Amino acid sequence: MNTNLLYGSIPLNLGSLKHLKIISVAENQLTGEPGVPQLRFLSSLFNCSSLESLVVTYNPKWNYARSLGNISYSSLSDFYAEGCQIKGPMPTTLDSLTTLTLLSLDHNNISGNLPPSLGGMRSLQRLFLHNNSIEGHIPYELCHTRNLGELSLGNNKISGLIPDCIGNLNHLQILLLNSNNLTSSIPGKIYLGTKSVGTFQATLELFQSLNYFNMSNNMLWDIPQTFGDLKGLEFLDLSYNNLSGAIPKYLETLKYLKYINLSFNQLSGEIPSEGPFVNFTPQSFLENRALCGKQNLEFHLARLVEHKNQRGFIYRKGNASIISGSAEELLGTKHRMISYHELRCATNDFCESNLLGEGSFGSVYKGILSDGTIVAVKVLNMQMEGASKSFDAECNVWRAIRHRNLVKVITSCSSPEVRALVLQYMSNGSLEKCLAISFWMMRWSHVGDFGLAKILANNKDATQTRTLGTLGYISPEYGHAGIVSTRGDVYSFGIMLLELIVRKKPTDEMFAEELSLRQWINASLADSVLEVVDIGLLKTEEGRDMNATEDIIFTIMEIGLRCSEDVPEKRMDIKDVVSQLMKIKLGLESRN
Questions:
Q1: Which of 141, 160, 179 is a domain's end point?
Q2: Do 6 and 140 share a domain, yes or no?
Q3: Does the record carry ATP-binding as a key word (predicted)?
């Protein structure tokens, strides 16, 4: 029953369904019983002896975290309650959840310390508590969860040291401790694995499974030499710390390392150049001013190409384009880099339920970043011919233009697994979706797809050797000869206006052979224009002049026809289009 706009309380008599295995009511508006704690229904499920998975993700105001102690069912293995505004400290009775293998409580308001009772969850394999307000230190008892494979505590207020006993978690593959207040150096004993007597007695092999390590945005001082022993490491993020000294050469031996981020530290010396470092870009080492070497040199040269004047404009040498904005914003230093793993978490592993749309070269998913920001993630399908060029073209256009009607780029991800853009989320969906709803509902559109875009030269025309675009909206000269110009955009806009008026797509099955949407509307102008107009536009409110409404519809239809002329030179200038539409708008406002 996910994402169904359900509201009200969850019935307590669900507990009578003894053979129920899965309850999934994510992304609704479900709350608790009036006058009782919102998580009371959890205890009502005690008799669901077969219940294995409980998903209440993103339902509002579930309040008290201590009620989580009521989920000690005999068979429950997975509990998802992220984004439910759960507040207060975690219960001290978590050790009663002996069958739970996954506990996901991220993106809530949980406060207080991590309870030692976490150590009693002996079956726990995945623990997600990121994006809360958890304080204090990481309890030693957490090391008793010997089956733990993924631990996510990022974006909290956890302080102190990482306990040495973390090395005892021999199944741990992913460790996220980013954006906390962890201090001092990374404890080398975690990775050293010596057999000497002391607080850490795990062997080196116990930590060989770790492949994802994120401790960005803390207060760490150095990189321990024993990182070189983590032969399976694929992801390492130590950005935004106080790391100093040289980047250890032994990191070159990590042959599986696909991503590293050491940006915004105080590292010095030469950047390693062998092993995985051959593939790392300057983005991995930003703002370490004492670094030198091939990668850093390339980065500084790239910055020297651009010059900023006092007004905040950047002029590129050898290029006529002028880019508005600050240098930091354009270079991306204000936006944190994002990893493939973070994108997977944000989109629930690119779940189909989060799919917003698909295009020629990829798909767009709804996602929620670790800081709670809702985004649209545009993922490239690298198997498609021309996909890489489309991605590069889109990035070039995003870099070169700024406008209030363009979707904002938050960040990007380019890794061996994926190439993706993380964009501002538009809650109203695509233009196609809006066209099917209502002309009058459209208020403020944002362009968010530049996969086919080109920056035109001064002649304002270009030739495209391959026909790309949305069938029915591309201009005749583009479809036949590959001629690209702003007049082609006017044509597409005209077709869109006509579609708004008649609520029929240019690809409708009635438009076949010689008949097109434009021809059909043009033929109706003589005597039966209102017969093709969508009936919803002809409904008038009491006191509104029907004749005036028809005049407005007729004028917009005429603009659409003039914009979609077959001959480019006959099409309206877009400035004239804006002028006429503004007159219509002002006329409507004066009547209301």
A1: 160
A2: yes
A3: yes
Do 386 and 532 share a structural domain? Answer: no
560 in the same domain as 469: yes
Q: What are phi and psi of 162, to 5 degrees?
A: -75, 125
What is the C-alpha to C-alpha distance for residues 204 and 201, in angstroms, rounded to an integer?
Answer: 9
Q: Using CA atoms, how far apart are residues 452 and 445, in angstroms rounded to an integer?
A: 19
How many other C-beta atoms lie within 10 A of the C-beta of residue 327? 15
Is 378 part of any known ligand binding site? yes
Residue 322: burial class (beta carbons within 10 Å; 0-12, 13-18, 19+): exposed
Total domains in the fold of the chain: 3
Read off the CATH number of the domain in which 35 is found: 3.80.10.10
End-to-end C-alpha distance for the chain, whole angstroms? 43
Extended beta strands in 117-215, E state = 126-128, 133-135, 150-152, 159-160, 174-176, 181-184, 212-214
Q: Distance between CA atoms of 519 and 532, rounded to whole angstroms?
A: 12
Distance CA 219, CA 335 (A): 20
Range of the domain at 154: 1-160
3-state secondary structure 534-577: CHHHHCCCCCCCHHHHHHHHHHHHHHHHHHCCCCHHHCCCHHHH
Query: pLDDT tens for residues 54-104?
Result: 888 887 666 556 666 556 566 888 888 888 888 888 888 888 888 889 999
505 and 373, same structural domain?
A: no
- Mind listing the pLDDT tens digit for each residue in 393-452? 666 666 556 656 677 778 877 665 577 888 888 765 555 555 544 443 444 444 444 344
DSSP-H helix ranges across 50-103: none
